[in-house]
Amino acid sequence: EVKDTLHLGSRLRYNFGQGLAVVICNSNYADGTGLEKLRNQSDVDQYKRTLPSIGFDVMVHPDLSADQIISCMRDLASRARANTNGVDGILVAFGGHGDQDSIFGVDGAEVLI
Fold first, then answer.
1. Which pTM value belongs to this model?
2. Residues 35 and 24: beta-carbon distance below 8 Å
């Protein structure tokens, strides 16, 4: 059963059943990392309000270290491979510090993307 149709421009659309959204919100970077603390909770609140309306279950992970980010992504990949819940779309959002090819855990360690 299709819950909604997500319109992606004038000619594209995606018939969407159920999705899983993983939102990593790194705000409180450790002292000594050289990374300032962020105020990005409003972004998370917006994801939590908006994504369920188009069929996403939203899982929020605040303030993850680099190792925790990697573990979270491995868990997500395992769930996607198993796909026991009928998920047909995955969204990953990261709010925090990063560079062109990497993101940073709150411990200041880099995770290549």
1. 0.82
2. no
